[in-house]
Write a structure and sequence with these properties.
heterodimer, A: about 375 residues, alpha/beta, four-stranded mixed β-sheet, about 5% strand, B: about 400 residues, mainly alpha, 2 domains
Chain lengths: ~375, ~400
């Protein structure tokens, strides 16, 4: 009897076009779109060579120190900071600026370099900071020479900067902006498991579907019916998640870290949560199916939005500003579990997330079982 | 006008779902605006990276001075000195630059072998580089002062250095014309608008078409004493009215939401933006006409609506700026109308001079959008003609009555 009900539920889930579209095709399409549009996201914040113009007039030619410094940072190589465009006068600089060829240009006025630009921005700030450094160092040098001329020989090397900082890495895998979108997408698929749970419970209630009415009369204990049905849903949904994760990892090449076993465990916990969530929504006898589906979609979308499906980092913001909301959001817990596996070396927070997910599923399953047991219908 | 009235009645019955989309969209826009509150300024404004100093040393004038200097050029983000807090902040860019001052740093600094400060940034991040150059500039000047004037008191030395560091380059911001560019918030609203146009139009057009394609209604309408062209004309009128309403609604919403920011924007730029969004409404209408030829049930309506709108929006640069798409992706994106809408919008927002030369590429993008609208409209007419002749047009079409 177990296999009969279990297998029929699996077949029924796989034959439903809606289910296939929303839990299989839609996430695969979205992940492909994410892949094509988000893979360059990390490059956006990288330091790129900054195109800058310089007016090579008589004033510039006189300042040999500045020429040496700017030539050094514009030399092609690993440390190149500027792509220098030499122009004869300010008009040529303006033309390049207007065409967007350069981020700004430098022109000497009263023996000091001035910076001319048309926008604010990080590149412009870096150019300004470079010029500030030059001015400040030059001024310090002049000041020290007047105060203590004997220090001249020591200050001669002032423009040779020493590095006092050393970059360290806090984790094995580097931070990246892209993975969070995929994790949030998986959280969405997990919660879409609710469609399966909803359908399954509707098919068990006599007042919701003709099939439910027939099954209520069948000589099988209700508990067994529910268990077999929900197990069937979880199997299908878990398989769906594994296919999507495999697609993301092997076809799109997105990293989930090296702990594949725990990634599968997260999928299983997510699947349990999604199905139990759908089952809980479905127990209401008063709401129509369309309304239940709407509740499911709206809740899923809100949870996923708050876990970073549309804007990466919003989950961090909420975890900082409203920790309770973050801990109660199942999608945020799924995203966080994947994130811990990718980024952390320890497992404490990962298992805490999995524990919360399992607890939420248990509570929802218990509530569903409580409402469904010993249901009797006076009239249908 | 019976058909038109019937269309309006159908729309009225499903108004709730229609409004949900609209409200969610407006909420999203308000949310996004609260994140970016950049105000246009005729003076140059520095970009301020966020930074965190984790001081494991004692409070010394050297470190306090560094903190003061960084605070002038960046925004401090306080973090706990815990491994996971620092890891999370680095991952989610809560802090662009985390500086860890090791114990004994101040004491070892004047010696021949100073301790290194540890920094955590995203790999090769530009903001991290900038913050790092600030730290090194400060420490280099301190070192020079220490070498040149070894007897100077530390407090005085730090204030001298900070004094030198307050010297700034003169920056001139050229405007090339007198107009203020379009505010970023309004540009983002218009960008996101493309998605909602497609969703709302697919939804409202297919909802009506689905009803009229119900076999029993279709057969009954065929023998009604109403000329076929009048029937089609009324459907077209409904589509036109709904498109115009949606366009007006979103345009007014945009003006209401961003009235303050738009107060000093040039009217020419706003007019061009409105023309652009109007043309895109026509494109969305034609997309909706083609899509609704295939829609037979409400679940199909949901999936087609989502697949088409998300697909076109992602590929065309609605959600992710076009500059972030790779070259190959941009080559593909050029085949989508959304790309031309976004390109025109970006160009309009960057305009400071309005002349034939600067406007040429914008008119080109407008023309391509119009071409898309016309071509898709023709495709939908051909599909409908073929469908009306075929037996399959009397196949099963589900509507809310049966669902």
């Amino acid at each position: 009897m177990f296999w009969n009900i279990y297998w029929k539920r699996i077949l029924s889930s796989l034959r439903s076009k809606d289910m296939i579209i929303w839990t299989w095709a839609f996430p695969i399409m979205l992940s492909t779109l994410f892949y094509f549009t988000l893979t360059n996201l990390d490059e956006e914040s990288l330091l790129k060579i900054i195109p800058v113009g310089i007016v090579t007039d008589a004033a510039f030619e006189q300042d040999t120190t500045f020429q040496t410094i700017i030539d050094t940072v514009s030399e092609p190589g690993e440390d190149q900071l500027f792509d220098l465009h030499r122009v004869d006068n300010a008009e040529q600089g303006d033309a390049l600026l207007l065409q967007g060829e350069i981020d700004g240009y430098i022109q000497f006025k009263n023996k000091t370099p001035d910076f001319i630009t048309k926008n604010d921005g990080l590149n412009q700030t870096i150019i300004k900071s470079f010029l500030d450094n030059y001015l400040q160092t030059k001024s310090s040098m002049e000041k020290l020479m007047t105060e203590n001329p004997s220090a001249l020989h020591q200050t001669a090397s002032m423009f040779n900067r020493e590095a006092f900082t050393k970059e360290i890495s806090l984790t094995e895998n580097p931070p990246t902006d892209t993975v969070n979108f995929f994790y949030a997408l998986l959280a969405m698929v997990c919660m879409y498991g609710g469609f399966l749970g909803l359908k399954s419970v509707s098919m068990l209630q006599a007042n919701l579907s003709p099939l439910g009415a027939r099954r209520t009369m069948s000589p099988v204990k209700r508990f067994r019916l529910i268990t077999c049905d929900l197990l069937g849903c979880i199997t299908v949904h878990f398989a769906c998640l594994l296919v999507i994760v495999s697609y993301i990892v092997f076809v799109l090449g997105i990293s989930f870290g090296s702990k594949s076993g725990l990634v599968i465990l997260t999928c299983l916990a997510g699947s349990l949560l999604g199905v139990s969530f759908g089952a809980l929504v479905s127990i209401s006898a008063k709401l129509k199916e369309a309304a239940k589906t709407a509740v499911l979609i709206v809740t899923t979308m809100i949870c996923c939005f708050l876990s970073g499906l549309m804007f990466s980092g919003i989950n961090y913001l909420i975890a900082q500003k409203a920790p309770a909301l973050s801990w109660l959001n199942p999608a945020a817990r799924i995203v966080d579990a994947f994130y811990c596996l990718y980024y952390y070396d320890t497992y404490d927070r990962y298992f805490l997330n999995i524990g919360i997910l399992l607890l939420m599923s248990l509570v929802m399953f218990t509530m569903t079982a409580f409402f469904l047991r010993r249901q009797r219908y006076e009239s249908i | 006008m019976k058909v038109f009235k019937a269309c309006m009645n159908i729309l009225k019955r499903r108004l709730a779902a229609f409004l949900i989309y609209l409200v969610i969209f407006i909420a999203l826009c308000v949310f996004m605006t609260s994140f970016s509150s950049e105000q246009y300024n005729t003076n140059f404004t520095e970009t301020k990276p966020s930074f965190t100093i984790i001081n494991r040393d004692t409070e010394t004038p050297l470190i306090n001075g560094l903190f003061r200097y960084l605070n002038d050029h960046g925004t401090e983000v306080e973090l706990e000195d815990r491994q996971d807090a620092l890891q999370d902040a680095a991952f989610f860019h809560a802090s662009d630059y985390i500086l860890i001052v090791p114990e004994g740093f101040s004491k070892a600094f004047p010696t021949a072998s100073p301790l290194s400060l540890q920094t955590v940034t995203s790999m090769d991040s530009a903001r991290g580089y900038y913050a790092d150059s600030l730290v090194n500039q400060y420490l280099n000047l301190i070192k020079v002062y220490q070498t040149a004037t070894p007897d100077m008191d530390e407090q005085k030395l730090v204030s001298s250095v900070l004094d030198d560091l307050s010297l700034e380059t003169r920056v001139e911001k050229k405007l090339f014309g007198n107009e203020q560019p379009v505010p970023e918030t309004y540009q983002n609203f218009n960008r996101m608008q493309a998605y909602i146009f497609i969703v709302l139009l697919i939804f409202s057009i297919s909802m009506v078409m689905m009803v009229f394609r119900r076999p029993d209604l279709h057969i009954r309408n065929l023998c009604a004493p109403l000329k076929s062209y009048s029937f089609t004309l009324q459907l077209a009128l409904y589509s036109g009215v709904v498109s115009l309403l949606i366009w007006l609604l979103l345009t007014v919403t945009g003006f209401v939401l961003y009235r303050n920011e738009l107060s000093s924007t040039s009217a020419d730029a706003i007019a061009l933006i409105l023309l652009n969004s109007f043309l895109f409404t026509l494109v969305s209408l034609s997309i909706a006409m083609v899509a609704s030829s295939f829609i037979r049930s409400s679940s199909m309506q949901n999936s087609v609506g989502n697949f088409v709108s998300l697909g076109l929006s992602f590929l065309g640069g609605v959600f992710v700026p076009l500059e972030m798409l790779g070259d190959n992706m941009v080559a593909i994106a050029k085949f989508t109308p959304t790309y031309w809408y976004i390109t025109a919008l970006n160009q309009i927002c960057e305009l400071t001079v309005f002349n034939a030369e600067t406007l040429r590429s914008i008119w080109q993008a407008f023309f391509i959008q119009f071409g898309f609208a016309a071509a898709l409209m023709c495709v939908s007419l051909v599909i409908n003609k073929y469908r009306n002749q075929a037996e399959s047009s009397f196949g099963s079409t589900e509507t809310e009555i049966e669902a």
